[in-house]
Amino acid sequence: MHLSLHDCGIPMKHQILTFFFLLLGISGFAQRISISGTVTEAGTGEHLIGTNVFDRVSEKGAVANQFGFYSYTTSADSVDLYFSFVGFQTKNFRMKVAQDTVVNVSLLPDGNLEEVVVSAAGMDQIQEVTKMSSINVPLKQIKELPAFMGEVDVFKVLQLLPGVQSGTEGGSGLYVRGGGPDQNLILLDGVPVYNASHLFGFFSIFNADAINNVELIKGGFPSRYGGRLSSVIDISMKEGNMQEYKGEGSIGLIASKVTVEGPIVKDQTSFILSARRTYLDLLARPIIKATTAGEENIGYYFYDLNGKINHIINDKNRLYLSVYSGDDKAYSRYKDFYVFENERTDYEDEFGLSWGNFITALRWNNVINSRLFSNHTFTHSRYKFDLFSNYDERITGAGVDERSSYSERYFSGIRDWAAKSDFEYIPNPDHYIRFGVNGILHRFSPGVYASRSSAADNDLRLGADELDSFEYAAYAEDDINFSDRLKANLGLHYSGFISDGQHYRSLQPRIAARYLVNASTSLKASFVTMAQFIHLLTNAGLGLPTDLWVPATPRIGPQEAMQVAVGGVKNVNGFEISLEAYYKTMDGLIEYKDGATYLNLDQDWQDKVAVGEGKSIGAEFLVQRKVGRVSGWLGYTLSNTERRFDEVNFGEWFPYKYDRRHDVSFALTHEWKDNKDFSLAWVYGTGNAVSLPTQRYEGLEMNRFSGGIRPNVNYYESRNNFRNRDYHRLDLSFSWWKTKRWGERKWTLGIYNVYSRMNPFFMDLGYDRQGNRKLMQYSLFPIIPSFAYAFKF
């Protein structure tokens, strides 16, 4: 008798889960021997994420995870293991094995940075792995490429990759495959970051000196990631030098930074502390005070502080405590007085805004056995925005001494408390199984206005109340070798969201596969579904801090996406070549209705938004070289992105603001001498889509019947009906360094926008000198030279 799961009355989605977990368990029965351990950098103890482990005997291998742990299982009685990592010398171990063995490996940096070729060792090469739409940029390249105003920025480098748009001139926003900035899952040591921008979006919050690894995933998302639609930017902080005290820093055009690391207890506990601050406010303060007789003080600054402690309990247990704190602050203070008759009035007017993140994470790594690894994380994060205005007044004289005050404040933010457990099980080289659970308690403050006055009964409070929501998820995935040619990553991600009495659930299948055509070429395909339970109400494209995070509610549902991608990759003499095509749909997108903003405080935000859909289709080409004296990449994207909302643009499809038909990027670094390097970056892109009126109805200067002014009326034929001029720019950088007795010093000279292309920042209607109406272009950045002095000790 044949009995199926369906005959048992089990729902279909549970059938899938049951079959999947049965599949995961099949591979663990054979009696085999495991070699496991961690891979670190010699001299520092820093884990080398993604190190390739290859056995020449079996022609199979393993890859170290984000904590440097690897596990390789074999049935043979001997192994010939090669450990290789980009920019490091390959290390080889030949040994007889009769039982499970721990082999911890330290790799030395390769001074020449030339590629080490190991015959048949290709486990970490682009054509071998199942994941697609994923790019890892070496930190060395990130630091060497030209930097805007001399400030190295991870996000500025990611914008040079195919499928990623910058949004606006100089901005650090990431618009990936037609998605918005809120659809990027930005992780810092596993903790989501809600606002990654400094200086109104011109810089990101990530200090490159404190970072160990950066990975961008644009599609084919593994099941362990969830909660966003468009991309994952997974950033890991350095862990701190276990051997000796080290430091580095730099002084640039607008900011300075310093990083110190070293052992608290040698080979057991280490720390790293990194700080960065702009100082334009400090330089401008004496000038402002001198020109205003000390009556006015205006300034702006941002800072970042990264810290981490890494403690080895024993060979199988390790603890990490990491902290990030960063804020932007802009302020204006004005003091003055005036005398009227016999009374003197002293007053002080203050205005300011601030926004920032605080993130802390406690992690416990546990090697349960040679094939099973666990990571448990407990986190707290907070993002806040605060806009305030204070006025104080004192009247004295003629027997009078009166004080009065008035203050206004607008604030918003989001707080998270989260816990998650992740497990990695590697029964043999043909299976790499990951599974885990997580939960997040969100507390949303979606925008509150409050005013207080010294006068009685004049206090006012408007806006939404705080709202608590709970988000949870469970996942399982297996990276399976079906044969020498066919490999796949099969997974499921199940998530849910409880908010305001509404419970949303989502089951998301994820599939990625590669077929190895030959030793250097493979074909790849992926299918993923994603769900996002939080929204960002965006007022402008600059990533302004007035953007509000809000949850899915009974009225406004979650965002959902489906993405299909196919492609081919080839590895030729150290060059990684990839060509991908994708199709992506998005539902549940929101944006403000025409005329609505965050300032409509008397309205519920749910009444101010329209809900719609989006779609994006494109093709991406990338040639990348990561090692050698000459490295870099050439990327090209051909894409089309559209949005549709029932209450916007008459319900018709319209181009997304950051849709770019063509996008080209070329990045190159050349270490032409042992102490000198040169780098350049050139970008070209189709202009952004903007809405401009096609007709204008002129109003009268004065309405004689009412005595008021009749405004001009603009008629817009459709949303985003006009294209800005094409964007292109060339940046150059030249560095030279020298070894001193105390360490190393380095000078870097850079030029942003070498040929001073006046690229459009925004367009508007204006008047020429003859008073004729015309379309006006406004630009921000002409050619900008910069410098930076860096040091290591």
From TrEMBL:
GO molecular function, one term: siderophore uptake transmembrane transporter activity
Residue ranges of every copy of the TonB-dependent receptor-like beta-barrel domain listed in the record: 300-754
Listed Gene3D superfamilies: Carboxypeptidase-like, regulatory domain (2.60.40.1120), TonB-dependent receptor, beta-barrel domain (2.40.170.20), TonB-dependent receptor, plug domain (2.170.130.10)
Domain TonB-dependent receptor plug: 150-228
Principal location class: membrane
Entry keywords, A to Z: Cell outer membrane, Membrane, Receptor, Signal, TonB box, Transmembrane, Transmembrane beta strand, Transport
Nucleus among keywords: no
One of the GO BP terms on file: siderophore transmembrane transport
Family: Belongs to the TonB-dependent receptor family.
Protein's name in the database: Outer membrane receptor for ferrienterochelin and colicins
Record organism: Cyclobacterium xiamenense
Lineage, broadest ranks: Bacteria, Pseudomonadati, Bacteroidota, Cytophagia, Cytophagales
